[in-house]
Design a protein that fits this description.
This protein is mostly helical. It is built from two helices and no strands.
C-alpha cells in the first residue's frame, strides 16, 4: 500500500508542476505582450540549459562518493 501512496503523491506533484505553467500561459501572454513573453521564454530556456549542465551526473557522483569513501568521509 505504501508504493501506491508514494506513487500517487509523485503523480499529483508532477501533474501540478505541469499544469501551473499551462494555466498561467494566457495570463502571461496577455500581461507581458509578445516581446515580453519572448524574453521570458528566452531566459527560461537559458535557465533550463544551465540547470542541466550544472547538475549533469550529480547523482552518479554522489553515489560514487558514497560507495568509494563510505562512512569514512564525514564532511
Amino acid at each position: 500500500m505504501s508504493l501506491l501512496k508514494d506513487s500517487a503523491i509523485y503523480v499529483i506533484g508532477e501533474i501540478l508542476s505541469k499544469a501551473l505553467p499551462f494555466v498561467l500561459l494566457p495570463y502571461l501572454t496577455r500581461s507581458l505582450g509578445v516581446e515580453g513573453f519572448a524574453d521570458y521564454s528566452y531566459y527560461m530556456a537559458i535557465y533550463v540549459l544551465l540547470t542541466f549542465f550544472i547538475t549533469i551526473s550529480q547523482d552518479g557522483s554522489i553515489s560514487r562518493h558514497y560507495f568509494v569513501y563510505g562512512k569514512l568521509s564525514q564532511g
